[in-house]
Design goal:
Elements lengths: L21 H10 L11 H4 L3 H12 L14 H26 E8 L2 E4 L5 E6 L6 E2 L4 E6 L1 H75 L6 H45 L1 H22 L2 E3 L4 E6 L6 E2 L6 E5 L4 E6 L12 E5 L6 E9 L4 E2 L13 E9 L14 E5 L5 H11 L2
Antiparallel strand pairs: 1-10, 1-15, 2-9, 3-5, 3-8, 4-7, 5-6, 7-9, 10-14, 11-12, 12-14, 13-14
């Protein structure tokens, strides 16, 4: 007895059977799903006839076939397409940033003053912090040196000893000077007295000579004058002349003694000069040591801002290494490096708007100076230029009174956007920079 078509056993599908597409495969899979099981658990099967029930039982005992899996869509093409889009976008952004977006690159520089102690010592006090604004001559730190203090104390002791020695020498020389002054005055009095006697004896000698000459003249006129009288006058004159000569020699020697005593008095004052010079030398040395000690009080030489503190309280400070770094006010400027073909576009006083990453606002600056010679590309921005390209540095500063100076920080990178007014400009630039 032939079974109905609906109760036929499902035939397995060969793997080599051709498929008519995704929809046909789906319908074929639905059609080949196994039928509901028959038996006592199915109320509809109880009312069927015997042969039908037998065929259902046979059908229920038949092994179930595995359903055909649904075909999967390919995913590799989507990943490849996405990756290509990302690579193309990154390349386009790189080309835009490197060729068409910016005209020049540069960095921020400034005049930084390094401050250190004049000698090695211990940092006793720090009066400022990093980032604090300072004024000229403001006290920044105090450095002490115990060895320098000991030298000052030793020189003060030497000065006191020298002053005491000078006082003793002055007292001794004053006594000697007093004695010499007394001797000088006594010798001077004797000199004047002896000089007076000499003058008197010279006057008497002159009288004797005149008396002898008169007597001789009278005897020549035949006036009788005893010869004994003439001899007596001659002998008196000779004795008086000898006396005058002795007095003259005595006066000369006494005058020399008086002059020598006066010179000795002046020499006494010269003897004090070495002691006075020693005291003056010690005073100057102490003054220099104190001035050196005052150098331990480190003060700001200019108006600026403390950007770095290298030492802390209690640490030893070596004169070869700085304690502070102070950025001078008004010295911050940006240095742009432009190619030779673009150098003619810039002039002093020109206003520029620079991009300073990561700031979103542009810094308004003015061209302060244009260099006189070309320089090689700095290491920090050489990636933006051709290898071994010579560039012209252009120095720009923030506008006075603007807040753009806070955006420009030392060591930062600045960029000058390219102003494109004609598409041919971009093509010409790209052709010029292409190797």
């Amino acid at each position: 007895m032939s079974q109905p078509e609906s109760f036929r056993k499902p035939q397995p599908v060969s793997a080599d059977e051709p498929s008519n597409g995704y929809g046909a495969a789906l319908l074929e899979a639905v059609r080949r799903q196994p039928k509901a099981a028959t038996g006592f658990g199915n109320p509809a099967s109880r009312s069927d006839t015997g042969p039908v029930r037998a065929s259902r039982a046979a059908t229920a005992k038949a092994p179930a076939t595995r359903p055909t899996p649904m075909p999967k869509r390919p995913k590799g093409r989507l990943l490849v397409g996405t990756f290509l889009l990302v690579v193309i976008g990154c390349g386009a952004m790189t080309v835009w940033n490197s060729l068409f977006r910016y005209q020049a690159y540069g960095g921020v520089t400034g005049r930084v003053v390094e401050l250190s102690a004049a000698w090695g010592g211990v940092l006793q006090t720090i009066h400022v912090r990093e980032g604090e604004a300072v004024r000229q001559e403001q006290l920044l730190a105090t450095v002490v040196n115990p060895e320098l203090d000991r030298q000052v104390d030793a020189k003060l002791d030497e000065l006191r000893i020298a002053q005491a020695t000078l006082d003793a020498q002055v007292s001794e020389l004053r006594f000697e000077s007093q004695q010499r002054n007394d001797n000088h005055h006594r010798s001077l009095a004797e000199y004047y007295e002896l000089w007076g006697q000499l003058l008197q004896e010279q006057s008497r000698l002159a009288d004797m000579v005149a008396k002898r000459e008169r007597s001789e003249n009278l005897s020549r006129r035949e006036i009788i004058i005893p010869e004994e009288k003439l001899d007596e006058l001659r002998f008196d004159e000779t004795g008086q002349r000898a006396k005058v000569e002795k007095l003259s020699e005595a006066v000369r020697k006494l005058g020399a003694v008086v002059e020598h005593s006066q010179t000795d008095t002046e020499d006494l004052h010269a003897q004090l000069k070495p002691f006075a010079l020693r005291i003056e030398s010690l005073q100057n040395e102490i003054r220099r040591l104190r001035e050196t000690a005052c150098l331990g009080a480190i003060r700001a030489p200019v108006n600026g801002r403390v950007i770095k503190v290298h030492r802390f309280t209690g640490e030893y400070s070596d004169p070869e290494f700085p304690i502070f770094e102070v950025l001078v006010d008004g010295s911050v400027e940006a240095v742009l490096f432009v190619s030779q073909k673009d150098s003619s576009q810039f002039f002093e006083g020109q206003l520029l708007e620079l991009e300073v990453p990561p700031a979103t606002t542009k810094a308004k600056c003015v061209v302060a100076r244009i260099a006189d010679q070309y320089e090689p590309v700095p290491k920090s921005i050489e990636v933006h230029y051709r290898r071994d390209e010579k560039l012209l540095p252009i120095y720009v500063r923030p506008l006075e009174g603007s807040n753009d100076s806070t955006i420009l920080r030392l060591g930062g990178e600045v960029r000058l956007p390219y102003v494109v007014s004609n598409p041919l400009t971009v093509l010409q630039k790209w052709r010029y920079e292409s190797p």
